[in-house]
Prior knowledge:
This protein is mainly α.
Amino acid sequence: MSVTDYSKWDNIDISDDEDDVHPNVDTPSLFKWRHEARLQKEQAEQEEAAKKNAQSKLRINKVKDLKKKMTELEVSGDAASEGTVAQLKGLKDEVTKLESDETQFQKKERELKEHQEAHPEWNVDNMSTDKHNRTVINKPKKI
């Protein structure tokens, strides 16, 4: 016997399921305000995701630049001097720190994505989609 899991319906945000509206507030305005609030929240989440991705790209580019500097220092003829050795060590430490930061960031992003896929935030805007949408107008009958 199979058990149906209804847990995905626990967090549905339907704007017309609440009757605690003040009598002076008309229902269409309330729905409009809630819709605008949902859109603003979604836009803020998209901006936050774009910011995170930009920071990740900056880390990756910085690692590439540091590796390029390291190879230039290793290729140069004065690689045996103390200043160059110390500079190479500092660059290697910075590269390892940036790479570990990036792997931690990617791990956290994967975990967040898995959690969001397992627990989607349902609302009236994303609950369903039209598969077929067409309008049929019948011709008037000729008598």
